[in-house]
Amino acid sequence: MVFVGLPQGDPGVLLVQVEAVRPKENRFMSKRENASRDLEARSNLGGEMGRSEAPSELLRELVAHLRQNRTLLREEWVVRITETRLLTAMTKEEIFAEATSVYDSYVEALETEAFEALQAYARNLSERIIPRGVETHEVVGIVLLLRDVLARSLFAKYQTDVKKLNRILDAYEPAANRIANTVAVGFVQERERVIRQQQEAIRELSTPVLQVRERLLILPIIGVIDPQRARQLTEQLLRGIRTNRAKVVVIDITGVAAMDVTVANHLVQTVEASRLLGATVIVTGLSPEIAQTLVTIGVDLGKMNTVGDLQGGIEQAERLLGYKVVTLAETR
Amino acid sequence: MEVPILKQGEVLIATFQAALSDADLEHLRRGLVQQVVKFRSRGVIVDVTAMDVMDSFASRTLREIAHMIRLRGAETVIVGIQPEVAFAMVQLGLTLEDVATALDLEEGLAYLIEKFKNID
Question: Taking a C-beta distance cutoff of 8 angstroms, is the pair A178, A119 a contact?
Fold first, then answer.
């Protein structure tokens, strides 16, 4: 079966919730630990003056560094992306353009610590590149590459001052991790949204039950049938038989390349259930693969009325209903 | 609750009113099989429109009724099986093999009249 079911829980949403909860937790913890931290601070008083820079200050320094070396770092990043053969579905120019915007949003997110803009950008980016076949691992990959490129540049800059390097990394790592997380979650969420939307679309256009003559229904089935869709088809058909008072139903499965054993069984059950409502079912357009499946599950061919194509099916249905189609010339 | 059996020309009609007990079903079977010869009926219609559940016993009894009545020289049609009931029955493997079915009473009568015409 080709259909991929959505996981019940939405991991993306879960992650976001965790994200949203975290700051609260921190606040709570800091209240609890305030007392002990105060003590520590007092005992350290005068000991380590270098600690005076707040993380935000470090971040500002970091951002300034990234702004200064924007062109260089961005180019290095693009080279690394091409080297690792990520985003192969995109042209070099496109990669460079996206890299520029991602880089800028990245630095901005580092600076402001506001992730909404980045999140929106990630969603927008996903919307554009998902249809082109860009995979999740590629998106995560490029963000991690950027993280790596920037970290290396920090190493290079502060290699003489290991203490400062450590503090800078302390400020940089959590923010960078959050950014990577945000982008990945945004991408996955967008992907899931697209899948949901498509499933909905398939569901809506999947089951027309059409009346072509008094008491004759046609059910053309196109595309992949998964168990859920099969159930829906059956429901619609049985209801259609009742409301249209159908005596004959032609189920045309020309547009179905193959079906698995479960769905084939379901089809047979649908035929039998229709008979219980007093309607005869004619199945038309069975592909060789489906014929094989039906033979494998051992369908009682006495119960299944099958005709090669839709035209033949409709002709037989008309015979069953007592219609006879004649040309006007014949009636004269 | 017992099922009344109505005579309409050459046809006997039994309409289920609501869910029936096993004893009611057996009573119906006896009644139909007796009366089909007594009234020299040629057809029997069992209308199950009111049944929203069909267990294996009911389904088997319906099939037995149809087969017994054929042995007594008449035709049986089961009419009015609800779509949901039909699918549930099929999933349980209760497919009423060799028993004629029709959408509703009207269809069932039309089926029997057609059948009588072919025999005459």
Answer: no
Locate the chain A residue with the closest alpha carbon to B100: A278
Asked whether the CA dihedral A237, A239, A244, A247 is positive or negative, the reply is positive
Mutate: best of B77, B103, B105, B106, partner A, most A CBs <10 A: B103
Residues of B in contact with A276 (CB under 8 A): 78, 81, 86, 89-90, 95-96, 101
Beta strands at A216-222 and A210-213: parallel, antiparallel or unpaired:
antiparallel
What whole-number distance in Å separates Cα of residue A13 and Cα of residue A7? Answer: 12
ipTM higher than threshold 0.95: no
CB-based contact A269 B83, cutoff 8 Å = no
Q: What is the mean pLDDT of residues A222-242?
A: 88
For residue A46, the SS3 value is coil
B1 at A interface, C-beta within 8 A: no
Which one of A245, A247, A272 has the shortest CB-CB distance to B90?
Answer: A272
Is residue A302, in this structure, part of any structural domain at all?
Answer: yes
Q: What is the pLDDT of residues B42-74, one digit of tens each?
A: 999 999 999 888 888 999 999 999 999 998 889
- Structural domains in chain B, sorted by start: 5-119 (3.30.750.24)
Is A299 an interface residue toward B (CB < 8 Å)? no
Verify that A119 and A231 share a domain, yes or no: no
Which member of A242, A269, A279 has the closest CB to residue B87? A269
Domain boundary among A202, A229, A246: A202
Amino acid identity of residue A40, one-letter, is E
**Same-domain check for residues A168 and A59:** yes
Residues of chain B with pLDDT under 70: none
> Would an 8 Å CB–CB cutoff place B68 in contact with chain A?
no
For residue A329, tell me if it sits in a domain: no
Residues A257 and A290 in one domain: yes
Q: Does A277 touch chain B (CB under 8 A)?
A: yes
A172 and A255 both lie in a single domain: no
What is the arithmetic mean of pLDDT over A165-173?
Answer: 85
Q: Which helix (H) or strand (E) holds A167?
A: helix A162-205
pLDDT of residue A53: 60
